[in-house]
Amino acid sequence: MRDVQSERDSRRISIDRVGVSDVSYPIVVLDQKENIQHTVASVTMSVSLPHEYRGTHMSRFIEVLGEFQGRVTLSSLEHITEDLRKILDAECAELDFSFPYFLLRKAPVTGIASYTRYDVTFKATKGDVFDLVTTVVVPVQTLCPCSREISEKGAHNQRASVEISVRMKGLVWIEELVEIAEKNASAPVYTLLKREDEKFVTEQAYNTPRFVEDVLRDVAVALEGEERISWYRIRVTSNESIHNHNAFASLERDKTRSAEGRAECLPGGAGK
Amino acid sequence: MRDVQSERDSRRISIDRVGVSDVSYPIVVLDQKENIQHTVASVTMSVSLPHEYRGTHMSRFIEVLGEFQGRVTLSSLEHITEDLRKILDAECAELDFSFPYFLLRKAPVTGIASYTRYDVTFKATKGDVFDLVTTVVVPVQTLCPCSREISEKGAHNQRASVEISVRMKGLVWIEELVEIAEKNASAPVYTLLKREDEKFVTEQAYNTPRFVEDVLRDVAVALEGEERISWYRIRVTSNESIHNHNAFASLERDKTRSAEGRAECLPGGAGK
Amino acid sequence: MRDVQSERDSRRISIDRVGVSDVSYPIVVLDQKENIQHTVASVTMSVSLPHEYRGTHMSRFIEVLGEFQGRVTLSSLEHITEDLRKILDAECAELDFSFPYFLLRKAPVTGIASYTRYDVTFKATKGDVFDLVTTVVVPVQTLCPCSREISEKGAHNQRASVEISVRMKGLVWIEELVEIAEKNASAPVYTLLKREDEKFVTEQAYNTPRFVEDVLRDVAVALEGEERISWYRIRVTSNESIHNHNAFASLERDKTRSAEGRAECLPGGAGK
Amino acid sequence: MRDVQSERDSRRISIDRVGVSDVSYPIVVLDQKENIQHTVASVTMSVSLPHEYRGTHMSRFIEVLGEFQGRVTLSSLEHITEDLRKILDAECAELDFSFPYFLLRKAPVTGIASYTRYDVTFKATKGDVFDLVTTVVVPVQTLCPCSREISEKGAHNQRASVEISVRMKGLVWIEELVEIAEKNASAPVYTLLKREDEKFVTEQAYNTPRFVEDVLRDVAVALEGEERISWYRIRVTSNESIHNHNAFASLERDKTRSAEGRAECLPGGAGK
């Protein structure tokens, strides 16, 4: 049977990435308490393709995925990307796993537990070196300092999200990033709150007004001070309750580069 | 060229609906001030198919759509469905246009105007009689009465939506349904608010606490009292700022049926 | 602490459904081989509310959800809805679990296994009686009979989906509904196919041309003949590869009603 | 009234971007034939924020948007970003308009016209210099060369999309980018095709088999040869009809940099 993909290509154009995307697959991840968590990932897998090959062999991505039986850990991410490089004879392999991750959280007063969902992405790239970006999206609440200041009573508040991406020098657990995000918002959100808890959270938010700029900066201070983190990107998005659009703030810092700490005016900025 | 669709089918199964969906098309609609509004619709068009035909002719849906040059009015909806019935020799034709609709709204104190988006759907069905369901989704704010009552200061509030669907005996403008939804929430949302407006809206919401149940009932009272409306369905959904999930309430009433006003325990209820 | 929700309401409007929606929660389901499958559900829970109460107690939905520790089976669905009715003193309780469900499937020639994702929904309603609608969405391939017939070579084909909803008199497994959908399409889809498999599937589809109308009717014949099913609704949607929109066909049949088998021209038809 | 946003901030963290996102707004754009096209945009507007300010004034974004009355042209994009910089006293301003854009297209044999939707984004950044990235997503059809080669009859084909982003030295119309994408796929897609057209398109695709890698490279050749384009990024995504996931290929080239034309193994590659 002819292998069309392996034929020579004469257009002299190497391809940055070729692969499969939006593969929905059951995976297992390890949490901080060493427990196994079953979840469902959206997977993207790709390699670079030298100019002389017409195509890559897409089925091999899924074969490699199957071989790891859905076990997603820091070491398996490096192994999978390394396997992809070898099997597909590529200079570079990349892997994205995006999945919901649940933590059992206690309501602040009654202590009743319920699961909160966090959205996690691992983006692993393997060329000469291995690179891993871990992202977690944490739902929180923000309460507007301006609205509180100028209004006689009340203050508009709303659901917001804190997206933290990091590169690590030492292991940082998802649970730690979640805690940084929740501590620096006006209040966390919970799946289950009894009335005493609702009173607590309402007052906590009222007493902790935060612009998206505030949340962003406080999270940045925490990440800047964490030695295990070498690079980070933060985006805080607030689903403004007085508008039908969102407010957001974002920044990106590479601690390994010059320490100016100044935002550059590059297209895309810290965002996309 | 063989007409496969027109061949006889022997399975003896008539089809309720066959057609095209998710057709993105530019349309023009008329607003209450008799102005033309250009927008973009997601269109679904279908007919019933008798058991003896193998298939329908899908291209004719798009041809009919083109003939009307995107003009969507109450009378064109009836004409389009009637044309579909004739051209496709069908007992029944159905048409859905879903589109964003913009109204210029003034901020409550400064009076500065900006556009607010409302999502509108016309669902037209033509069999022996013509039936039209008009739906509008209105973004609003809700402020929780319980949170306000039990907390020393503040109250959680959030973006919410009021979805109103109606069948009419007399013409009711989208603008009128928008007004009913906005009047009965804790506060409307606006695209542009200056600080004075923000103070006003924050206080308005604090002084008008509303559960989703409250908004639902007040909207129901308004629709019940409106003689031009013969049937309605309401769904209020609140993006709770203390949770990462929503609260909702829904009901459906047919004024032409028995006036019990009692919720039936039928699967699906008023919602879906 | 004041219980605002329990206060009397004077608007005399009973509410069909009030509750929580879009709750993301980890669940476990049992598959046909008696294995446990961990997955993530989007959950909606609601009750009817008599006219005299101002509101329902939303936190109790989540408490009930927690008590069942995410175990979703036919019997737990009845228990949860019955518990909700009692705890919230409601005539009617409703529960929706929507979740991805994975089956290990073998490629047709090489037999290599990979997971395919199916989207399942259980909608349980408990009033005087218990009602359950099970829905599964099955990705498949359709190849156009008209395109094949009129073209010298090739035929357009595309990814499509078969959505089957049923009410049961006897237990029907999700796996059985999946099989009915896949058997009656032009070909199934697979996550992993080697070249021999790709050849097989391409030829299978070419030799099994199917309009959405054909898939719909063949699935209907299978469901009609299955005694354990008392009611069904089918929707076949094809992501036409020659258009940027979809073709669809839908029907709904209640075997317990008159056996005319004729499509009625009611608004909404079999669809939504 | 206190201006909380203007207060001094002591955290010494400058912010890359702060602003509003997901603002839905009616806009008008100019097409190549000098006609005005009304459409609906999703708008993001942001500025950089020096470390000494606590917050930005979000309402001013919407005011600036309103002043331009939705007129989106190359020159208005530069004016809007420049205005934002001045009004908000920022080093850097950024603006994203994403909107559906329609072109009237003729079916290949019958010549009957219908609208095809293309998704366009303008991303404008203004610091010391003005930067503009124009992106258009073009729906097309791909037919698999491997499937065609190894199968006795037929070949799997599917809807795909070609996303082209460019920076320009001279004006390139959206219509030109659309043409480049459609010419280099297996076939374009059309909203309206009669049977003669369907035959043509089916045969055209069968006679023009293309991997995502092929489409990517042919589009790259065209963009490389176009002097008005100084930088480009391409992503081709194919909704594989034999799988429930996608195949994709991507690359990014900056003509102003070294002419190696080799893919680098940087995280994210050409994509995101």
Please tell me about this protein's structure:
4 copies of one chain form a homotetramer. The first copy, chain A, has helices spanning 59-67, 74-87, 145-150, 174-183, 195-206, 212-224; strands spanning 15-30, 36-49, 71-72, 93-106, 113-126, 130-143, 157-168, 187-188, 229-238, 246-254. Chain A is an alpha+beta fold and 272 residues long. In chain A, α1 (59-67) runs antiparallel to α2 (74-87). Chains in contact: A-B, A-C, A-D, B-C, B-D, C-D. At the A-D interface, β1, β2, β5, α3 and α6 of A face β1, β2, β5, α3 and α6 of D.
CATH superfamily of the largest domain in chain A: Urate Oxidase
Q: Identify the most extensive interface between protein chains.
A: A-D, 73 and 73 residues
CATH class of the largest domain in chain A: Alpha Beta
Oligomer: homotetramer
Order of helices and strands of chain A: EEHEHEEEHEHEHHEE
Residue windows where pLDDT falls under 50 for at least 5 positions of chain A: none
Largest sheet features of chain A: 10 strands, mixed
Structural class of chain A: alpha+beta
Percentage of β-strand residues of chain A: 35-45%
Total domain modules of chain A: 2
SS summary, helix count of chain A: 6
User: Could you say what the CATH architecture of the largest domain in chain A is?
Assistant: Roll
Radius of gyration of chain A: 22 Å
